[in-house]
Amino acid sequence: MKGLSVSKTGVYKLRKGVPPDVRHIIGQREFKVSLGKVSRPEADAKALSYLSDWEHKILDAREQVKFIAAPERPRRTIGIAVDAHLEEYKQAQLAHLKERSIADHVRSLENHMFKRFPVIHNRITQRVVQGWVDSYQELEHPPASRTLEKYVNCASKYMSWLIRKGYAPPPNYFSEVEMPLTRRMKRQPFSDDEILLIYRNIEDEELSNLFLLGAYTGCRIEELCQLTAEDVLPYEHEGKERVFFIIRNAKTAAGQGRTVPVHLQIHALVLRLQERGGYLIHTPTTNKYKERSSAIGKRFGRLKRELGFGPEKVFHSLRKTVATQFKNQGIPEPIAADILGHELQTMSYGVYAGGAPLNVLFETLDQIDYKDLEGATS
Q1: Scanning 3, 181, 287, 350, which has its CA 20 to 30 A from the CA of 45?
Q2: How far apart are CA 148 and CA 179, in angstroms?
Q3: Which residues contact 46 (CB under 8 A, 6 or more apart)?
Q4: What predicted TM-score, i.e. pTM, was given to this entire model?
Q5: How far apart are CA 364 and CA 358, in angstroms?
Q6: What CA–CA distance (Å, rounded) separates 81 from 68?
Q7: In what order do the strands lie in the sheet with 259-261?
Q8: How far apart are CA 310 and CA 181, in angstroms?
Q9: Can you point out the beta strands (E) in the chain?
Q10: Rounded CA gap, 356 and 259, in Å?
Q11: Cα distance between residue 217 and residue 195, in whole Å
Q12: Per-residue confidence of the chain (378 residues) as pLDDT tens digits?
């Protein structure tokens, strides 16, 4: 069978070139897939199934080309260029988002939906849209399930808006696709031993400071990098002078403006950072979205990879670690949510539904304890 080959290890592979006239629609020069280590009859059967599916995709793409190439036929419904109303959509639906989120949303549309469906017309069917989603699994390096969901969700939101405005006919097939059954990677918390391992291997003073702030507060990395000396305020707790943070640059509305007590273990550190003035974490660069955590976050990423940690363990895992400690110590969810800035899913929390008192937050946060880390940081 043309395009079918077998490696020295017995793994069958199938390849088929994408015709030049539809490569810009399909977005690749070649279809290819591994059929696994199977018998020749099984490989032939699998290959026929893939070849049939690829032929359908080529035919669908050629239909797209016909509509793009034939605007002079006045009696035929041509449809609309998919990006014709993008600027209006950005103003109407995305203006409330942060600059980075807008750019990410638009980039997802332009690099994926718009390339596969440059024109919206009545030849776009459920099968065509589902085929587009399924095609990502045939790539040599398929996107992660969460990334693919983002592509589809952005496309669905845009199509829903086009339909609502009367720019495109219903239905919205992007909202009805079935996502591939792939296992989603979940961020994992660090263990006490891992916390100590990372801390002992940090040679960068600013990264060390940032790591301790994250480990003892559970704040997001950008929240910590945006903290200034003015965001550190005094508070007397149980007869002792303590301090707490005001989080003014949170990712979510639930986290905006919240108060986060400073753990006793990092009290002296925070006072030293406050005395320097300006931002508590000195990182000189910001990216185009005015985020201060980008460079130092990459430094942490390189360190943890050098120590053998995989993609499931990241700086955000410190947040998971603090949440896990709260859960294991039986901390009520509303109090933990007040500290971490989580959105509560229910309103039946009684006395602390309006926010826990600051003294309760101090008592809660002081319960964070990492085996052997206290001695290492003193």
Answers
A1: 181
A2: 8
A3: 12, 14, 35, 38
A4: 0.61
A5: 10
A6: 9
A7: 232-237, 240-246, 259-261
A8: 22
A9: 4-6, 12-17, 30-36, 80-81, 119-120, 232-237, 240-246, 259-261
A10: 10
A11: 14
A12: 788 998 888 888 999 998 988 887 787 888 888 888 888 888 888 888 888 888 888 887 787 766 555 444 443 445 688 999 999 999 999 999 888 899 999 999 999 999 999 988 877 889 899 989 988 887 777 888 889 999 999 999 999 999 999 898 889 999 999 988 766 668 899 999 999 999 999 999 999 999 999 999 999 999 999 999 999 999 999 999 999 999 998 888 878 889 999 999 999 999 999 999 999 999 876 676 678 998 999 999 999 999 999 889 999 999 999 999 999 999 999 999 999 998 775 543 444 455 789 999 999 999 999 987 876 565
* CA 146 – CA 104 distance, rounded (Å): 14
Distances (CA, A) of 78 to 22, 24, 69, 81: 18, 19, 10, 9
Cβ burial 263-297 (10 Å sphere, 16+ → b, else e): bbbbbebbeebbeeeebbbebeeeeeeebbbbebb
Question: Cα–Cα distance between 217 and 220 in angstroms, integer?
Answer: 9
What is the rounded distance in angstroms from the CA atom of residue 30 to the CA atom of residue 140? Answer: 11
Q: Report helix angle 333-340 to 358-365, nearest 10.
A: 90
3-state DSSP call for residue 244? strand
CA distance 327 to 357: 19
Helix (H, G, I), strand (E, B) or coil at 6: strand
- In single-letter form, the type of residue at position 199 comes to Y
Q: How many C-beta atoms lie closer than 10 Å to residue 52's C-beta?
A: 9
Task: Give which of 32, 35, 53, 57 is closest to 44, Cα–Cα.
Answer: 35
Do residues 354 and 338 lie in contact, with contact meaning Cβ atoms separated by under 8 Å?
no
Q: How far from the centroid of its chain's Cα atoms is residue 1's Cα?
A: 41
Residue 230, pLDDT score:
96
Cβ neighbours of residue 150 under 8 Å, at least 6 residues apart?
108
Contact 164, 342 (CB under 8 A): no
What is the Cα 63 distance to its own chain's centre?
A: 34
Q: Which residue has the tokens 């320097």?
A: 276
| Distance, CA of 128 to CA of 133 (rounded, Å) | 9
